[in-house]
Amino acid sequence: xxxxxxxxxxxxxxxxxxxxxAAYRQLRQALEFAPxxxxxxxxxxxxxxxxxxxxxxxDPHGAVFFYCSRALGGADLVVYLGPxxxxxxxxxxxxxxxxxxVWGVAGPDEHPGVMIKGCVARWFPTLDALIDELTRxxxx
Length: 140
Hints:
This protein has a single domain (10-124), classed as Rossmann fold, CATH 3.40.50. Helix content is 39%, strand content 15%. The chain is built from 6 helices and 5 strands. A 5-stranded parallel beta sheet has the order 2-1-3-4-5, sandwiched between helices. Helix 4 links the parallel strand 3 and strand 4. The chain is globular and about 40 Å long. This is Nucleoside 2-deoxyribosyltransferase.
């Protein structure tokens, strides 16, 4: 979703799990008027329901994988919101391999392993600290 239009708009991918959707939405809302085009993978999520956890992991035609892998490789910045699972770890690897910088916020009591720490170039102590930096950062 294009939230800001202009010559300096940058593509941002938010890497997290569906368990962190509240933080995902908080970050998107905070960036609504900032120069970011958030690559929105949540549009592929199924409607809430009793079998949501099963259905969210189904991708019979590969559309979710294709969209996310292309969005990650073409992003200007990837943000990691922890704790997340194995899909988020794979996403971080795709971003790192493509040379896309990754900023992160570890979740409560999360102790990222060697691979996640290796992919994340800059850690923030809180989501608010990350939002503050994203809304004033001009390091492009």
